[in-house]
């Protein structure tokens, strides 16, 4: 990427390669769209000054970060379990940060190695899973902090979990101690959760009851990972949240570049949009890194919920379908389809140049070539093999005229992950404007919520919603 302060590298050569034949996008195709995108970048910058696109300001709001750090410094030393209750945008970023930036075996590590709590993010209401996690906490509520995250404070799944967990904590610890162990991340002024915790604080008169962190106004769930929503659990688990925000801030400079050809968010938006126009609306993100796997899950929500809409201008149903795949695992599951199935996909590979650790493949069985080459190769490490497999897959795709691009992480660390998150978030409003839709709403999820209230007997929802008639 052009901006010297960012370290992710975007390689789009297998979008432009002649071997793609009719599936190739030329630089001229991008230049054709560039004037419109230049205007869009200008519009977004102007709207940003007027208070829109609020997520763009998050890397710069450092006083809030100091508040989080103070709370973490107080809580972390005596906390063995951090239980996050949230769903969708109130959980996916937390999960992605933890798996990218801490060992995937974090919860299995001895507490003296972790020096921070185990993290459980309960982003579903499956009772078997829920109770399994409760057993892990094993009545150790006195060393557990619960972070309830809900911007609206209305979400049935999170509210149900909160009611159960609060009740069990009160039974174990008594109400006065229990409520000091519950941190609520929600809107500053609006919503059921806000009203409830304010009222409970008044009722209880306990100083640290239901302490709260704020989901900033105008920042929707799927854009909130760099706000207290994602930062609190990350900081509790020793993730360097300053570096995360520094990476995002550096990317802010890069994605503010008015030149669409040099602006990485604009370039990604143009490529995705032009391919969608040409019938490739399945967008596969395929990290060749276990650490980055859950970032692809986070991206899936960002892309789907932001861009799958009815376009107001013509009432047409529009939107790409994001797909998550994992290299090398899914080479043995998906690549057959990707190469020989319909040519309706654009692939984004995530590649890591240098893994934190690597495992040398020992040389053995010299007379069994199917084994021997692995240890003999110059690339004879698991990281080397993974890199070779990524290279092999992108070339195999190219031979089948399947376009792909690569985002290269020099290393997976808080800074590069911050860059990545901010980059994709910034692609979304450009895509929204190109597609003529509002990327910040999610009207289609409302009906399901109302029907759930109806089936669960919530007062005010006795009748089926009018859309059902
Ligand atoms: O991105 C979104 O807006 C949604 O996925 C929400 O995050 C999700 O529905 C949970 O909402 P809330 O945080 O209000 O409980």
Molecular structure report:
The chain has 469 residues and is of the alpha/beta class. The protein folds into two domains: 9-46 and 243-434, Glucose-6-phosphate isomerase like protein, domain 1 (Rossmann fold, 3-Layer(aba) Sandwich), CATH 3.40.50.10490; 64-215, Glucose-6-phosphate isomerase like protein, domain 1 (Rossmann fold), CATH 3.40.50.10490. Helix content is 47%, strand content 13%. The chain has 18 helices and twelve strands. The chain has helices at residues 13-16, 27-49, 62-75, 92-101, 111-114, 127-137, 156-173, 175-180, 192-204, 228-236, 241-255, 264-277, 293-307, 335-340, 369-376, 382-399, 414-435, 446-455, and strands at 9-11, 81-85, 118-122, 144-149, 182-187, 211-215, 282-287, 309-311, 316-318, 321-324, 345-352, 404-409. The strands form three sheets. A five-stranded mixed β-sheet has the order 1-12-11-7-10, sandwiched between helices. Strands 3-2-4-5-6 form a five-stranded parallel β-sheet, with helices on both faces. A two-stranded antiparallel ribbon has the order 8-9. Strand 5, helix 9 and strand 6 (211-215) form a beta-alpha-beta unit. Helix 4 (92-101) runs antiparallel to helix 13 (293-307) and helix 13 runs parallel beside helix 17 (414-435). The longest helix has 23 residues, at 27-49. It binds 5-phosphoarabinonic acid. 5-phosphoarabinonic acid is lined by residues 87-90, 150-152, 155, 158, 220-222, 305, 442.
């Amino acid at each position: 990427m052009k901006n010297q302060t960012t370290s992710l590298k975007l390689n789009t050569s297998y979008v432009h390669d002649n071997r793609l034949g009719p599936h190739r996008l030329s630089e001229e195709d991008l230049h054709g769209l560039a004037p419109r995108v230049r205007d869009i970048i200008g519009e977004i910058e102007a709207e940003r000054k007027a208070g829109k696109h609020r997520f763009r300001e998050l890397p710069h709001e450092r006083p809030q970060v100091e508040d989080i750090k103070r709370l973490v410094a107080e809580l972390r030393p005596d906390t063995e379990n951090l239980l996050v209750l949230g769903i969708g945008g109130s959980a996916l970023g937390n999960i992605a940060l933890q798996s990218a930036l801490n060992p995937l075996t974090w919860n299995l590590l001895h507490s003296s190695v972790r020096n921070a709590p185990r993290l459980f993010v309960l982003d579903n209401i499956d009772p078997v899973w829920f109770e399994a996690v409760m057993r892990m906490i094993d009545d150790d509520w006195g060393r557990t902090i619960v972070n309830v995250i809900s911007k609206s404070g209305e979400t049935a799944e999170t509210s149900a979990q909160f009611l159960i967990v609060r009740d069990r904590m009160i039974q174990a610890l008594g109400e006065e101690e229990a409520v000091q162990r519950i941190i609520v991340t929600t809107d500053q002024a609006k919503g059921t959760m806000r009203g409830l915790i304010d009222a409970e604080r008044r009722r209880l008169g306990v100083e640290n009851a239901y302490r709260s962190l704020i989901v900033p106004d105008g920042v929707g769930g799927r854009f909130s990972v760099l706000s207290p929503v994602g930062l609190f659990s990350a900081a509790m688990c020793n993730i360097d949240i300053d570096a995360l925000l520094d990476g995002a801030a550096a990317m802010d400079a890069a994605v503010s570049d008015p030149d669409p050809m040099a602006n990485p968010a604009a370039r990604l938006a143009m490529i995705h949009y032009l391919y969608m126009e040409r019938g490739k609306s399945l967008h596969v993100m395929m990290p060749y890194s276990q650490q980055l796997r859950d970032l692809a899950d986070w991206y899936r929500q960002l892309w789907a919920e932001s861009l799958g809409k009815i376009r107001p201008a013509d009432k047409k149903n529009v939107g790409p379908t994001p797909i998550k795949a994992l290299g090398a695992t899914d080479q043995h599951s998906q690549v057959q389809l990707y190469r020989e199935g319909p040519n309706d996909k654009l692939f984004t590979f995530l590649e890591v140049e240098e893994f934190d650790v690597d495992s040398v493949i020992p040389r053995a069985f010299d007379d069994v070539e199917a084994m021997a080459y692995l240890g003999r190769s110059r690339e004879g490490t698991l990281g080397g093999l993974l890199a070779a497999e990524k290279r092999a897959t992108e070339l195999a795709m190219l031979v089948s005229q399947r376009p792909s691009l690569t985002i290269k992480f020099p290393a997976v660390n808080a800074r590069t992950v911050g860059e990545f998150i901010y980059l994709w978030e910034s692609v979304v409003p450009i895509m929204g404007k190109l597609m003529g839709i509002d990327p910040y709403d999610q009207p289609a999820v409302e009906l399901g919520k109302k029907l759930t209230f109806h089936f669960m007997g919530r007062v005010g929802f006795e009748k089926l919603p009018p859309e059902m008639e």
